[in-house]
Amino acid sequence: MPELAEVEWFRKRWNAGLGDEIVDLSLHAGKYVFRSTNTRALRENLLGERLLRSTRLGKQMHFEFSGDNWLAVHLGMTGKTHAEVPDFRPGGHDHLVLYQRNRALVFTRGFDQKFLDQFFDRHHQAPIKGVLLMQHGFPGIGNWMADEILWRAKVLPPKRTGKLSACERAAIFRAAKFVVKKSLQSLGKDFSDPPKNWLIHQKWKRNGICPRHHTPLHHATIAGRTTVWCRRCQK
Ligand SMILES: [Zn+2]
Q1: Which of 93, 109, 125 is the last residue in one of the domains?
Q2: Which of 49, 75, 109 is the endpoint of a domain?
Q3: What's the pLDDT tens digit per position in 117-127?
């Protein structure tokens, strides 16, 4: 789950629109995203109103509009709020766009290879393990998940992000989607642990082994965090 500081960071992305009126609204109402929201009421209530302020309640962001209207946003694992140009054209992952005269306030869910590539390019000097832990890029990916992703993608955690091949980037993207989805599923069902053949079960053991090769895992500190990997799997 995202850290509070990161929820705070995303809450402020919409500060650009404080005081301005909502002139149009675009909804791409994925069932999951707007579970308990009446989307028609959302449109009727927000059009013509001004964004007054925002607050954070735990991991939820609350946006207050004139006319005593509120919008609560929970980022979950892959949510992002951002401000874009006024004629912003929403893509498949942009679930809510609030248009103002001078900008568009966007709520996006999900990430794609393009996003990952751009983020990696911006942080090409840093080790890939450290980049996966940057919460403004990958909200919700914590220390154990980053190791799990790199083990699945067969990429060495200390490797410089700029040195990754297109193939490795694609493998990291696939592994990240898989790990986030699967861990949400098992957490959502019964708060159970991820499957037995995952790296996480070996990570904190003193004599942890690679679930694939049954050989001892290598330990090091990268970007200030304990990191494990398999020297046979990860190059
Ligand atoms: Zn291995």
Answers
A1: 109
A2: 109
A3: 988 998 999 99
pTM of structure: 0.62
Residue 180 alpha carbon to ligand 1 centre in Å:
21
What b/e string do you get for 150-181 counting C-beta neighbours within 10 Å, with b at 16 or more? bbbbbbbbbbebeebeeebbebbbebbbebbe
Return the HEC string of 93-123: CEEEEEEECCEEEEEEECCCHHHHHHHHHHC
**204 is written with which tokens?**
């904190």
* Ligand 1 centroid distance, CA of 126 (Å): 24
What CATH number should be reported for the domain holding residue 30? 3.20.190.10
Cα–ligand 1 centroid distance for 182 (angstroms): 21
Condensed to tens digits (0 to 9), the pLDDT of residues 18-47 reads 999 999 999 875 544 565 567 778 888 999
Residue 153, pLDDT score: 98
Per the model's pLDDT, the better-predicted residue between 144 and 189 turns out to be 144
Ligand 1 centroid from CA 185, angstroms? 25
Task: Give the Å distance between the CA of 179 and the centre of ligand 1.
Answer: 17
Does the residue 186 lie in any domain? Answer: yes
- What spacing in Å lies between the alpha carbon of 163 and ligand 1's midpoint? 21
Same domain (yes/no): 205, 99:
no
